[in-house]
Amino acid sequence: MDGLVIREAVPGDLEALIAIFAADDLGGHGDTTDPEAYGDYRAAFDAIAASANDTLYVAELDGMVVGTLQTSFTRTLTGRGSAMLTIEAVQTHPDRRGRGIGARMIAAAIAEARAKDCRLVQLMSNRSRTDAHRFYERLGFTPSHLGFKMKLKGA
């Protein structure tokens, strides 16, 4: 896919990112394009941008934001003090799925992990996203753990 650029998100990308998340029928995150919610998204964007360990990326094609993902770098005592990169919130614009954009975004995240000398890259995927599970397995990820969550707030 010539012309696809994976880059760090900037504030001007926020409306396009919100629209991508709001179009997600499977996530159940309560994302919305309601202008009243913009301040919540902006505060989150600013916190991610200020973090030394988190990066929000966009995939841009012909000047349009067509995908996004976030990475989080973590160093742990396990694995002899090794580092890992977690990939989160992977989304491709609904009209652009199946064109290799997601694979390019994941490849960019893996390259970041290698550059940071991480021992592994991990991600979680909603149990209902069976197409995404096949996608991740095709890219070399293996289901290895059972995840648990405790919802503390609505949304």
UniProtKB/TrEMBL annotation:
- Quote the Pfam families the UniProt record gives: Acetyltransf_1 (PF00583)
Recite the UniProt keywords alphabetically.
Answer: Acyltransferase, Transferase
The family database entries (Gene3D superfamilies) matched by this protein are listed as: 3.40.630.30
Where is the N-acetyltransferase domain positioned along the sequence? 4-155
Query: What Gene Ontology molecular function terms does this protein carry?
Result: acyltransferase activity, transferring groups other than amino-acyl groups
The domain of life for this entry's organism is: Bacteria
Know the name of this protein? GNAT family N-acetyltransferase
